[in-house]
C-alpha cells in the first residue's frame, strides 16, 4: 500500500498568528515538525497543504525542500476540500493518508510507523491515537484514513468542511467507515503537547528534549503489544478540550 503524509498548515491562527514560524529547538515549529517526519521509515511522501493565499509566504519561510516533497495551495476555509484536492492533484495513486497538524512539532515517528504497520493490516477506515479513553496525549495526534473514505466524506452534503476528524466521528457509521483507536498499555495522556497559544510553546520547550525521552515520560512503551479497538460513532469522541499539564 502507498501513502502520503499530509500536514495542514496556515498562518492565520486567531489565538497565535504565525505560530508555525515561531522558534523551536533551533528551527521553526513547522520546520522541526517536517524534519521529525523525515525520520519515519514508513511515510512515502510528505505534503504540505496550505491555503492558496498563504502558499508563497509559507514556502519562502520554510525554504529547504528537503523537508517535504510537495506543497499544495487550496481552500482556506474547507479543510476537507484541501486534503481531498491535495491528494487528487499530487498523488492520486496512493491508498491512504496520514494526517498531521502543524501545531504538533513533537509528533513521534516511532508511533507513526507503528500505526502505519497496523493500518496496513486493517486496510481501510479511520485510525486515530487521541481523543478517546486511554489514548495518547494531544500533541502526538496521528490520524490515518484511506482515500475511499475521504472521498465519501468529501461528497457528503451535510458535513462541515473545516472539521475532518469530526466528520469521521459524526458520519462514519452512515457512510460505512469503521473507526479505530490505537494506544499502548499504560500510556499517560494528562499532558498537553499541541501549540494553541504562546504559553503552550513555552511549556513544551521546557519539557521536551527528544522523542525517546518524551515517550518514556508518557509511559508509551512501543515494545508492548498495541491496543487496537473499535471506537463508537460519536462526534464527542473528537472533542479537543485541553488536558491537564504536569
Spell out the blueprint of helices and strands:
Layout: E1 3-8, E2 23-24, E3 27-28, H1 29-37, E4 46-51, H2 55-62, E5 70-74, H3 79-90, E6 96-101, H4 109-122, E7 126-128, E8 143-146, H5 147-155, H6 164-175, E9 179-183, H7 198-207, H8 211-217, E10 227-230
Parallel strand pairs: 1-4, 1-6, 4-5, 7-9
Antiparallel strand pairs: 2-3, 6-8, 7-8, 9-10
Helix pairs in contact: 3-5
Quick tags:
single chain; 246 residues; alpha/beta; Spore Coat Polysaccharide Biosynthesis Protein SpsA, Chain A; 8-stranded mixed beta sheet; two-stranded antiparallel sheet; 8 helices; 17% strand; disordered C terminus
Structural notes for this entry:
The protein has a single domain, classed as Spore Coat Polysaccharide Biosynthesis Protein SpsA, Chain A, CATH 3.90.550.10. Helix content is 33%, strand content 17%. The chain has 8 helices and 10 strands. The strands form 2 sheets. The protein has an 8-stranded mixed beta sheet, with helices on both faces. Strands 2-3 form a two-stranded antiparallel sheet. Helix 3 crosses helix 5 (147-155). The longest helix has 14 residues, at 109-122. It is globular, with a radius of gyration of 17 Å. It starts with a strand and ends in a 16-residue tail after the last strand.
Order of helices and strands: EEEHEHEHEHEEHHEHHE
Shape: globular
Strand order of the largest sheet: 5-4-1-6-8-7-9-10
Beta-strand residue percentage: 15-25%
Number of domains: 1
Structural class given helices, strands, pairing? alpha/beta
Q: Helix share of residues?
A: 25-40%
Going by CATH, the architecture would be Alpha-Beta Complex
Reported by name, the CATH topology is Spore Coat Polysaccharide Biosynthesis Protein SpsA, Chain A
| Major sheet summary line | 8 strands, mixed
Distance from N terminus to C terminus (CA atoms, Å) equals 39 Å
Low-confidence stretches: 236-246
Amino acid at each position: 500500500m502507498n501513502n502520503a503524509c499530509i500536514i495542514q498548515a496556515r498562518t492565520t491562527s486567531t489565538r497565535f498568528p504565525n505560530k508555525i514560524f515561531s522558534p523551536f529547538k533551533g528551527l521553526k515549529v513547522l520546520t522541526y515538525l517536517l524534519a521529525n517526519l523525515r525520520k519515519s521509515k514508513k511515510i512515502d511522501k510528505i505534503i504540505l497543504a496550505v491555503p492558496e493565499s498563504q502558499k508563497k509566504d509559507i514556502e519562502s519561510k520554510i525554504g529547504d525542500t528537503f523537508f517535504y516533497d510537495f506543497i499544495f495551495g487550496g481552500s482556506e476555509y474547507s479543510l476537507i476540500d484541501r486534503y481531498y484536492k491535495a491528494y487528487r492533484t499530487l498523488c492520486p495513486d496512493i491508498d491512504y493518508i496520514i494526517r498531521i497538524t502543524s501545531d504538533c512539532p513533537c509528533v513521534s515517528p516511532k508511533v507513526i510507523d507503528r500505526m502505519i504497520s497496523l493500518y496496513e493490516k486493517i486496510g481501510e477506515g479511520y485510525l486515530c491515537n487521541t481523543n478517546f479513553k486511554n489514548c495518547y496525549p494531544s500533541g502526538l495526534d496521528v490520524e490515518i484514513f484511506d482515500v475511499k473514505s475521504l472521498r465519501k466524506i468529501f461528497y457528503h452534503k451535510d458535513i462541515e468542511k473545516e472539521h475532518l476528524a469530526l466528520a469521521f466521528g459524526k458520519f462514519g457509521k452512515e457512510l460505512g467507515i469503521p473507526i479505530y483507536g490505537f494506544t499502548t498499555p499504560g500510556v499517560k495522556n494528562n499532558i498537553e503537547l499541541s501549540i494553541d497559544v504562546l504559553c503552550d510553546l513555552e511549556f513544551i520547550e521546557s519539557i521536551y528534549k527528544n522523542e525517546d525521552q518524551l515517550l518514556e515520560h508518557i509511559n508509551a512503551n512501543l515494545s508492548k503489544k498495541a491496543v487496537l479497538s473499535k471506537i463508537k460513532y460519536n462526534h464527542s469522541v473528537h472533542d479537543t478540550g485541553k488536558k491537564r499539564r504536569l
